[in-house]
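Lab notes, practical 5.
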Amino acid sequence: MKKKLIKSPGVRQEIAVGVKYGEKEIQKVSYERWENKHKDPFEVHITLPEFTCKCPRSGYPDFATFQLNYVPDKWVIELKTIKLYINSFRDRYLSHENSTNEIFDTLWKSLNPRYMELIGDFNPRGNVHTIVRRKKIKRGFRGKLQ
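Output from the prediction step:
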């Protein structure tokens, strides 16, 4: 990998030029899911504390913690897949509502769970704290949820 010397007053540092391996992983993310081998309902809770996107109006970064709660049917999400998928939003210009709904729709379509809830808890900016929550229950599911 090529390196470029950056000069600034009192600072000498080298930065790598080109796409980093993590960026390559994010660019080629595919939605990998695994077969759920358990017939009885169980809950999965995943916390994703490093979500970022950009405000579509100002371009300032928005930061959030997402909480995904779901009851699988035939599929469970592979954890590296969801990590990379969430990281793919970092350079996109999306509102809090649109990012939360896009993530929900993508996961619901891929997993088709019995139940799913996604909570986007966005860090306050400009004295405004936003929490976006969406949930859905598959028709016919009457499992007991905590």
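Observations recorded by the TA: The two ends are 50 Å apart (CA to CA). The chain has one domain: 32-137.
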